[in-house]
Amino acid sequence: MGVAAGSAFLLASTLLFVDAAAGGANADGTLPANAPRALRVLQSAVGLGIVTLMAVMVTWIAFGRGPRHFSTTISLPFLAYQPRNSDLAGRVGFGIAALLIWVIVIAGTVAALKKHLVRLRST
User: Fold this and answer.
1) How deeply is 112 buried, as exposed, middle or buried, from its count of CB atoms within 10 A (0-12, 13-18, 19+)?
2) Global pTM?
3) pLDDT tens-digit profile of 42-93?
4) What's the total number of domains in the chain?
5) Which structural domain range is residue 58 located in?
Protein backbone atom coordinates (compact mmCIF):
# COMPACT_ATOMS: atom_id res chain seq x y z
CA MET A 1 0.00 0.00 0.00
CA GLY A 2 2.86 2.36 0.79
CA VAL A 3 4.55 1.66 -2.53
CA ALA A 4 1.33 2.37 -4.44
CA ALA A 5 0.70 5.62 -2.56
CA GLY A 6 4.30 6.74 -3.00
CA SER A 7 4.17 5.88 -6.69
CA ALA A 8 1.04 8.03 -7.11
CA PHE A 9 2.89 11.01 -5.61
CA LEU A 10 5.91 10.32 -7.81
CA LEU A 11 3.67 10.28 -10.89
CA ALA A 12 2.04 13.54 -9.76
CA SER A 13 5.45 15.18 -9.62
CA THR A 14 6.14 13.79 -13.10
CA LEU A 15 3.02 15.60 -14.33
CA LEU A 16 4.46 18.86 -13.01
CA PHE A 17 7.66 18.26 -14.98
CA VAL A 18 5.66 17.45 -18.15
CA ASP A 19 3.71 20.69 -17.78
CA ALA A 20 6.93 22.65 -17.25
CA ALA A 21 8.62 21.00 -20.25
CA ALA A 22 5.66 21.97 -22.43
CA GLY A 23 5.92 25.60 -21.31
CA GLY A 24 2.99 25.43 -18.92
CA ALA A 25 -0.51 24.06 -19.15
CA ASN A 26 -3.68 25.80 -20.31
CA ALA A 27 -6.37 26.73 -17.79
CA ASP A 28 -8.22 23.47 -18.48
CA GLY A 29 -5.10 21.35 -17.87
CA THR A 30 -4.34 20.59 -21.49
CA LEU A 31 -0.94 21.27 -22.98
CA PRO A 32 -0.41 24.14 -25.45
CA ALA A 33 -1.05 23.42 -29.13
CA ASN A 34 2.67 23.57 -29.92
CA ALA A 35 3.63 20.97 -27.29
CA PRO A 36 5.41 17.88 -28.63
CA ARG A 37 3.32 14.74 -29.18
CA ALA A 38 5.51 12.77 -26.76
CA LEU A 39 4.63 15.16 -23.92
CA ARG A 40 0.92 14.83 -24.68
CA VAL A 41 1.12 11.04 -24.60
CA LEU A 42 3.19 11.15 -21.42
CA GLN A 43 0.68 13.47 -19.76
CA SER A 44 -2.19 11.09 -20.57
CA ALA A 45 -0.27 7.99 -19.50
CA VAL A 46 0.86 9.49 -16.20
CA GLY A 47 -2.63 10.80 -15.41
CA LEU A 48 -4.15 7.39 -16.09
CA GLY A 49 -1.39 5.81 -14.01
CA ILE A 50 -2.33 7.92 -11.00
CA VAL A 51 -6.02 7.04 -11.25
CA THR A 52 -5.16 3.36 -11.78
CA LEU A 53 -3.01 3.33 -8.65
CA MET A 54 -5.89 4.84 -6.69
CA ALA A 55 -8.18 2.13 -8.05
CA VAL A 56 -5.70 -0.57 -7.05
CA MET A 57 -5.46 0.79 -3.49
CA VAL A 58 -9.22 1.05 -3.01
CA THR A 59 -9.71 -2.43 -4.53
CA TRP A 60 -7.15 -3.91 -2.14
CA ILE A 61 -8.89 -2.33 0.85
CA ALA A 62 -12.26 -3.68 -0.28
CA PHE A 63 -11.36 -7.15 -1.51
CA GLY A 64 -7.89 -7.96 -0.14
CA ARG A 65 -7.22 -10.72 2.37
CA GLY A 66 -6.89 -10.10 6.05
CA PRO A 67 -8.79 -8.09 8.62
CA ARG A 68 -9.69 -4.45 8.10
CA HIS A 69 -10.55 -1.98 10.82
CA PHE A 70 -13.14 0.64 10.03
CA SER A 71 -14.77 3.09 12.38
CA THR A 72 -18.29 4.38 11.89
CA THR A 73 -19.99 7.04 13.94
CA ILE A 74 -23.41 8.51 13.28
CA SER A 75 -23.76 11.81 15.09
CA LEU A 76 -26.98 13.69 15.65
CA PRO A 77 -27.63 16.48 18.12
CA PHE A 78 -27.53 14.94 21.61
CA LEU A 79 -27.05 11.43 20.17
CA ALA A 80 -24.12 9.47 18.81
CA TYR A 81 -24.26 5.88 17.58
CA GLN A 82 -21.18 3.79 16.97
CA PRO A 83 -21.76 0.21 15.77
CA ARG A 84 -19.41 -2.42 17.21
CA ASN A 85 -18.46 -4.15 13.97
CA SER A 86 -18.31 -2.02 10.86
CA ASP A 87 -15.98 -4.33 8.88
CA LEU A 88 -18.63 -5.40 6.37
CA ALA A 89 -19.98 -1.85 5.95
CA GLY A 90 -16.45 -0.55 5.34
CA ARG A 91 -15.67 -3.21 2.77
CA VAL A 92 -18.97 -2.61 0.97
CA GLY A 93 -18.30 1.14 0.87
CA PHE A 94 -14.79 0.66 -0.49
CA GLY A 95 -16.08 -1.99 -2.91
CA ILE A 96 -18.58 0.45 -4.41
CA ALA A 97 -15.85 3.09 -4.64
CA ALA A 98 -13.53 0.55 -6.31
CA LEU A 99 -16.11 -0.28 -8.96
CA LEU A 100 -16.71 3.40 -9.68
CA ILE A 101 -13.01 4.20 -9.93
CA TRP A 102 -12.42 1.28 -12.33
CA VAL A 103 -15.23 2.64 -14.52
CA ILE A 104 -13.40 6.00 -14.50
CA VAL A 105 -10.11 4.28 -15.42
CA ILE A 106 -11.73 2.48 -18.36
CA ALA A 107 -13.57 5.60 -19.58
CA GLY A 108 -10.42 7.71 -19.24
CA THR A 109 -8.35 5.18 -21.15
CA VAL A 110 -10.89 5.03 -23.98
CA ALA A 111 -11.14 8.84 -24.14
CA ALA A 112 -7.35 9.27 -24.17
CA LEU A 113 -6.90 6.66 -26.89
CA LYS A 114 -9.58 8.28 -29.05
CA LYS A 115 -8.00 11.71 -28.58
CA HIS A 116 -4.53 10.48 -29.50
CA LEU A 117 -5.79 8.47 -32.49
CA VAL A 118 -7.58 11.54 -33.86
CA ARG A 119 -4.35 13.53 -33.54
CA LEU A 120 -2.37 10.79 -35.27
CA ARG A 121 -4.79 10.63 -38.18
CA SER A 122 -4.79 14.42 -38.64
CA THR A 123 -0.99 14.62 -39.03
Assistant:
1) middle
2) 0.80
3) 999 999 999 999 999 999 999 999 888 888 788 888 888 877 777 888 899 9
4) 1
5) 2-122
